[in-house]
Amino acid sequence: MEGGDEMQGALGLRCTRDITPPSVSQAKWVRLNVGGTVFLTTRQTLCREQKSFLCHLCQGEELQSDRDETGAYLIDRDPTYFGPILNFLRHGKLVLDKDMAEEGVLEEAEFYNIGPLIRIIKDRLEEKHYTVTQVPPKHVYRVLQCQEEELTQMVSTMSDGWCFDQLVNIGSSYNYRNEDQTEFLCVVSKELYSSSNGLSSEPSHKAKVRP
C-alpha cells in the first residue's frame, strides 16, 4: 500500500508538471483576428505601449471585445496595415512594403493609439512634402551697357543677389576728349526661389562676380 501511495504521489506530481507549462503558454500568447486575418503574438509585445488599444485589449481593461470560435480577439480593422503595426511593437522600427501607403499605416497607428509610431510616420510625411514642394531656383538675366571706367562703380552699386555672368567688349562707340571709350555689355543674373505658396524669394548675399 505504501508503495502504491508513493506511485500515486509520483504520478500526481508528474501530471502536475505536465499540465502547468501549457497553462503558462496560453497566458503568454495572444491571438488577434483582424478583419478576418489571424495574428499570433505575445502579451509582452502588445504591451510595449502601455496606453495603446492593444495593451488594454489583452489585459481586459474596460474593453468588451468579442472573440471568434478559436478564442481570438475580433478587431474590425484592415489587416493589410496591421502587420507594420505589430512589427513596430516587436522591434521598434517602421518597415513598409514598397506599395504600402504610409497614410494607411498612420490611420491604423492613430486607431491603436501608438504614439511613437504616429510621430515617426508624420515626420516622414512632412519630409516628403517638403521635398516635393521644393522648386529649383529660376534665373533672371539682365544685360547692362557701360563704359570701362564705369565698371568699378557698377560692381559696388549692384543690389543684393545679382551676379556678373559675362562681360563682353563691344569696342569704342565714340571719341571723348581724344580718348577712345571702350564699352562693355555686362550680363548679370539673380536667382529667384519659389516656395510652396507660390511666392518668390531672393537670396540675401551681396552681388558678386561668377567664376
UniProtKB/TrEMBL annotation:
Cellular component terms (Gene Ontology): Cul3-RING ubiquitin ligase complex; cytoplasm
InterPro entries documented for this protein: BTB/POZ_dom (IPR000210), SKP1/BTB/POZ_sf (IPR011333), T1-type_BTB (IPR003131)
Signal peptide stretch: none
Residues of the BTB domain: 28-129
Molecular function via GO: cullin family protein binding
GO biological process: positive regulation of cilium assembly; proteasome-mediated ubiquitin-dependent protein catabolic process; protein homooligomerization
Name under which the protein is recorded: BTB/POZ domain-containing protein KCTD17
Organism: Pterocles gutturalis
